[in-house]
Every structure is written in C-alpha cells, then in structure tokens.
C-alpha cells in the first residue's frame, strides 16, 4: 500500500469512528468491538515499506500514546462525576462506599489472584505474574464508557449564562445510577493506585529479594507518591478553577466565554506538577478534575470542557484500537500460550468478579446494601472490570524500567485479555444495564 494511501485509510477509519456510536446504538455491539475488527481488516492490507508495528520495538511510542489517552479519559471521568467528595463533609465519603471497596479490597485481591494463578499454578516467573496482575487489575476509564456515567449535569442549559452554584449537596448533584457511578469512580481512581504494584513488579525483576526494597516501596511508592499526586491535583485544580470561575480579571474567567481548552491545560499542568514532585500524575489529573468540578458544580462550563475531552479521547481510542486490530494480524498473539489464555479468561470470568463480589459484600449484613447497590447491581459491578488502554500503558512503562525475559509473552497475554474483554463486556454491557433498568422500573411501578 503506498504511503499516501495511509491517509485514505485513516480518513475512512475516522469516519467510521464518528458514525459508529449512532450506528450501533440499538444493537449489542460496542464501538471498541467494531474498531478492533476494522483494525484487523486493515491489517490484512499491505503496509508501506519499512512499517514496524512490533510492540517491543516501538514500546516508547505505545507508552506515550496510551499515557495520553488515559490522561484525557481521567479528566473526562473527573468532570463527569456529579457526586461530591469533600473533606469538610465527611458524609460525602460514605456515599462513595462502593468505590473504596473496589479500590482497597477488590483491586489488591485481583492482583493477588492473578499472581497466585500465574506464579503458583501455571509456573510464570514471579515478577512477570505480578506485573500482569498490576497491569490488568484496574478497570479501564477509556473502554468502559458503555457502563459509565455520560457526563456532568448543570443548573443552566447550554447557551445560558452560568449562575454560581451553591455548596456541594449530594441531594442536588448526584448520580441516580449507582452501578454507573461505582464503575466510573473506580476507573478514575484505580489507574493511579495500580502504579505501586507495577513498581513492585519492576523492583522484583530488577532488585530481586523483596526484603531489600519492601519498606521503601511501602513508604514511597504505596503511600508517598499517592499523597503527592492527590495534593498536586487538588492544588492545580483549585488554582485553575478559581481563575476560571472567580478571577477578578475578566480575561481569566474562562467559564464566562465557555473556552473549553482549559481542560487540556488542566491535564498537562496537573500531570506535570505531580510528576515533577515525584507523585502519580494519573491520580493528580483525576483529583484536579474533581476539584475544578467542586468549585462551581452547577456550571454549564463543565459540560463544555467535558465535550472537548470526550472528542479527543474518541480520536485517541480510535488510534489505539485500530493499532491493536492491525497488530493482531501481524504477530501480536504469536507468543500466546495456554498459560496466557488461562490467565486472561480466569481474570475476566473468575478473579475480578469474585474479588469485586467479596469487596462489595464483606461487612454488609444480610438485609443491608452497599452504597445502595442491591445484589443484582453488585453482580453487574463485579463483572464489568473492563481491561483496556491502561493495561497497555502499565505494561509498556514497566518494560521500559526493567528487563522481563517474558516481555513478548506479556504483550501477547495482555492483548488477548483486552480483546476478550472488549468482546465479552461489549456484548454484555447493554443487556446488563437494560436488565438493571427494567428491575428498577418494576420496583418503581410496584411502589
């Protein structure tokens, strides 16, 4: 295929990405499923001479593209969440009960489950098994859009003048869908909280005996970097939010003219500040978005920022999924063996659902509910641990930090798991959410 033809293929692919959300709206097919399939079809076409799509050779490029995609998705997730979370109102933390359980119980259990199945049962090297667990444990903020909240609500309709919102009030601003909120908030926070375990795998591969680095890992990677990332994000979000909504200089009050590019400035500023300070930039971006949202929760400006972030995310997702599809036809799964298949399927169908079910049930009485989730909703939340772009980033990052002899096997296993997740969760998402909504409707009509 001539190099110029790449532009034609890219243009057609982008057109497909624009049309797909409407085209598949009423069928049990997700946009990521179709994009991967389009990538597979493109992969069968001849490529320009010298094209190299080997993930080992182009690892830095993959890392940076996946990193940017996750960052943009995290800003979108942070802006989309309506439910307040405030240090001054401890009651708001209880409304996030399901989120904390998924983060602090389900994710470590998932990592441990993958590690034990891989290292103990299947004979995978301990460092590789731990890296696989850390990379695949987080619910992806990019590919889980079918089961996440759609976007921020506002007091004023688009085109109307923004009015300052009142103080955060869970009764005024709150998601009515507990399932979508739990999965969205989990995806926003767990991408940063998976990083300590990625570092643990890197240290295990490069330094060996955990006794030599475990204490430092707990103090710095597990606690210190998390705290720095959150603080950096809150500070950047507060400063930018004050400028946009409350600055004395009219030229700085970007909320008044609806300029949405502040969202991109916030992403880069929060991420850069956190990374320079030694913290986790992913957490900083999410915390920044949440903080900006909290300053004027009812402003329509959040919808403007969310809209541009969503469009950029769609373009990057198009690129990533097309590349995955193309690479599937060009050797990405060549190093997949039965161990990788078992681990991927076990994660999607057993380990994640079981870990999340335990997390959402432990400490709950027989007649109690966790975060207003009944048993049906807990089952849906437990099942939809979507794997995606975040897993690609963590794997690419770790392989750049330490030597893993199993790196090609890791690429094949992660790619297989993502594709299975895209298909399985893509087919089940609409039906599962419809089942939940029908149940809610039946309860409402009965009362």
Any key phrases for this structure?
antiport, Cation/H_exchanger_TM, 447 residues, transport, 0% strand, Na+/H+ antiporter like fold, mainly alpha
Distance between the termini: 63 Å
Major sheet, described briefly? none
Say what the CATH topology is: Na+/H+ antiporter like fold
Q: How much β-strand is present in the residues?
A: under 5%
Under the CATH scheme, which class? Mainly Alpha
Runs with pLDDT <50, length 5+? 156-168
Total domain modules:
1
Quaternary organisation of the protein chains = single chain
Structural class: mainly alpha
> What is the number of E strands?
0
Shape: globular
How are the secondary structure elements laid out?
Elements: H1 5-23, H2 31-43, H3 59-80, H4 91-94, H5 97-121, H6 126-136, H7 178-193, H8 195-206, H9 214-246, H10 254-257, H11 262-277, H12 281-295, H13 301-328, H14 338-361, H15 375-383, H16 389-401, H17 407-446
Membrane topology: Multi-pass membrane protein
Subcellular location: Cell membrane
GO biological process, one term: proton transmembrane transport
Outline of the structure:
With 447 residues, the protein is mainly alpha-helical. It has a single domain (5-426), classed as Na+/H+ antiporter like fold. Helices cover 68% and strands 0% of the residues.
Would you kindly provide a written description of the structure presented here, covering whatever features stand out?
With 447 residues, this protein is mainly α. It has a single domain, classed as Na+/H+ antiporter like fold. It has 17 helices and no strands. Residues 156-168 have low confidence and may be disordered. Residues 148-176 are annotated as: Disordered. It is a multi-pass membrane protein. The chain crosses the membrane at residues 6-24, 29-45, 65-81, 102-135, 187-205, 217-241, 261-291, 312-329, 341-360, 380-397, 409-429. Residues 15-147, 183-430 form the Cation/H+ exchanger transmembrane domain. This is Sodium/proton antiporter (CPA1 family).
